[in-house]
Amino acid sequence: MADQTNQNQAGEVAPTTADKQVPSTKSPEATDLPTANTPDPKAANPEDNPNAAKPVAVPPKREKPAAADKAAVDEKPAAAAKAAKKEKAPSVEDKPFVEFIEQDYLPALQKAIAQQGVQDLQVSFAKQKVPITGFESAEECWQIIGSWKEIGLRQFNLYFPEEDIQGKKGFSCNEGKKPSTLESFLIDERKITLDLLVFGLVQRLDGQKWLGIN
Question: Whole-angstrom Cα distance, residue 4 to residue 6?
């Protein structure tokens, strides 16, 4: 029988028992089983065991306002402004022309002229022809006719040919004679108000030296 070649003599080293073990390719897995030295974090008392799991406070999730709610919030200021604008009372100047003259202008004018010392003022409001010789238009227009001091001695006329306080206006006056030349009235004012219409006529009569101590 031929001798078997000794592995050691052939230069080969026989594997040891340790080399025959196949290395594990799996990673160590954590388990819920407590070790001999570490208590179970879930079962241990947090006051006695620093390794015990502690509850973490989670802040409540903030929800974004719905689109409908956001739209309602945005509409509130606009709705309030619209309501305030709607509730605002119209000015006296927005009244119909005749209504404004009779209800607002004539009483205010009489009061203002009375404060200047004139106590016997007679005022009327009528639609008639302009009482000036040579006046081109023969059409009637609304006029305010005022007179005092022995009725008819001093008289003035305020004309509204367009039936609009914002439109063209004219003025004339006389002292028992024919009316003076027709002149423009408050033509430089951009917007006519009740106060301005009263002040303008009082100022014009004062310039005629018909008021106060004149």
Answer: 6
CA dist 33 and 53 (Å) reads 15
End-to-end Cα distance, the chain = 168
Task: Work out the angle at residue 190's Cα, subtended by the Cα atoms of residues 187 and 193, and round it to the nearest 5 degrees.
Answer: 90
Q: Residue 9 pLDDT more than 50?
A: no
Would you place residue 5 in the very low, low, confident or very high pLDDT band (cuts 50, 70, 90)?
Answer: very low
Length of the chain: 214
Q: Tell me the residue type at 28.
A: P
CA distance 173 to 183: 10
Bridge partners (DSSP) listed for residue 142: 127, 160
CB 145 within 8 A of CB 157: yes
- Phi, psi of 31, deg, nearest 5: -125, 165
Q: How far apart are CA 167 and CA 189, in angstroms?
A: 11
Quickly tell me which residue has 């009082």 as its tokens: 202
User: Which element (helix H / strand E) includes 154?
Assistant: strand 154-160
Contact 158, 174 (CB under 8 A): no
Q: Is 102 helix (H, G, I), strand (E, B) or coil?
A: helix
CB atoms within 10 A of CB 95: 16
Q: Under DSSP, is residue 78 helix (H, G, I), strand (E, B) or coil?
A: helix
Residues 112-155: tens digit of each pLDDT: 999 988 888 899 999 998 877 656 555 789 999 999 876 668 89
pTM for the model stands at 0.58
Backbone angles phi, psi at 157, to 5 degrees: -130, 135
